[in-house]
Amino acid sequence: MEEDVGALAVPWIPTAELGVRTVPAGRWWDAVEAHSFAAVCVLGELTGRCGPVVEDEPRRLAWWLAPVGTASAWDLPEARVLGHGHYLTIPPAEWRWRLWEGGPPIRWLVPPLSERHLADPAVLRPALTRAIRHGMNHD
To answer: Going by C-beta distance under 8 Å and a sequence separation of 6 or more, which residues neighbour residue 40?
Structure first.
């Protein structure tokens, strides 16, 4: 059963009528950016435990939303943390990746389940490290 995340009262998620919205990082969350290939690997490994993930399919980038400040000291090759002073394009909750359909170019791979639903850095970092290492070895 799929939860209707479009009905959530999350202040930083735009409505479908408005389309995407540019949201400042460092207020509600920080974003951890990596190549979309890493997102596929992390999603496969963590199966639902990775927190919300936004993908910009044309740019082949993905962002995990993590609690503010929790990833600021990470030093991962091929990844960067977007905190205060950075902005991220956030799609409406309904804009999701769907098997066989793809979806909009900027979409949720994993939508947030609530306003406080964010990635757990203790789970995300090792999975992302392995995914990046795997991707670097297969270019």
So the answer is: none
